[in-house]
Amino acid sequence: MKINRGLKITLLLLAIAWLLKIIEWSLEVNLYHLGIYPRNRLGFFGIFFSPFIHGGLKHIISNSFSFCILCFSLYLFIPKIASKVLIQLTLISGCMVWFFARPSFHIGASGVIYGIASFLFFLGIFQKNPGSLIISLCIAVLYQGMLTGLIPNEQGVSWESHLSGSIAGLVLAYYYKNIETEFSQKKEIKIEDDFSFEGYRNIENKAFIYKYSDNNKRVKE
């Protein structure tokens, strides 16, 4: 059920992004103006639309693969709060871009992608259990190249979105550090320690009850 739900949500979000890109190609329009434009009232609404708007084919393909893997992993390992974290990452990183980024249209899901990667990585660090640390190690190995995206090193790339997403992921990972993940769930094992008289286990139940007679002999009822 968890896998099915996570896969459905991930594919649905990707489908919206691809549908908008197909509309752009079909109608020969450009929807970049729906992105985030910092410190502009209309540009503020781009916080909600920008993750679905992409520049070109290369942009949307690269983001699709990364988003698919990371979003599905989020729902797989932390199903209880996955949707909440996804929304919070989008809003927090988007607001940071709106407040602090360069005056230009910022589009694409890369801010959310960096946010999920950062969240999963730091959650494992903060929780310190073996399972969560394995996730952190996998993220570090698979997405180490993302570190270069945190600084301005390529024309036309919103490094502000990357940095904002990473910071948002770090903050949320610390906030949710005590949340149960699929690796941190512990099965409760109840151990009965009700012993009577010199270590003999009490085996009384509804069908088998002891009564004490006056001469201290046990009588089965």
From TrEMBL:
It is a multi-pass membrane protein. GO terms for cellular component: membrane. The keyword Membrane applies. Its main location: membrane. GO terms for biological process: proteolysis. It holds the Pfam family Rhomboid. One of its GO terms (molecular function) is serine-type endopeptidase activity. Residues 45-176 form the Peptidase S54 rhomboid domain. The chain crosses the membrane at residues 60-78, 85-101, 107-126, 133-151, 157-176. It is found in: Membrane. Keywords: Hydrolase, Membrane, Protease, Transmembrane, Transmembrane helix. PANTHER family: RHOMBOID PROTEASE, SLR1461 PROTEIN. This is Rhomboid family intramembrane serine protease. The lineage of its organism: Bacteria, Pseudomonadati, Bacteroidota, Cytophagia, Cytophagales.
